[in-house]
Write a structure and sequence with these properties.
By secondary structure, the protein is an all-alpha fold. The protein is built from two helices and no strands.
Length: 64
């Protein structure tokens, strides 16, 4: 369980970074503002998931 949460943490943080970079790239090009908003919403949602997984990992790691 601990190893699975560790790898899931890595995946979720990587997903946040990818969406952040896509949003910055879209913003720097000055294109579609609705796409920027959509990417921002995705980033915020992925950050919430990443924080949840990190907290679960910390709980499992401390009890193990």
């Amino acid at each position: 369980m601990e190893a699975a949460l560790y790898h899931l943490t890595t995946l979720t943080v990587a997903a946040v970074v990818v969406v952040l970079l896509l949003g910055l790239w879209n913003l720097s090009r000055g294109s579609n503002p609705s796409r920027s908003q959509k990417l921002m919403r995705w980033r915020v949602g992925l950050q919430a998931v990443a924080i949840t997984v990190i907290v679960l990992f910390a709980i499992v790691h401390n009890y193990h």
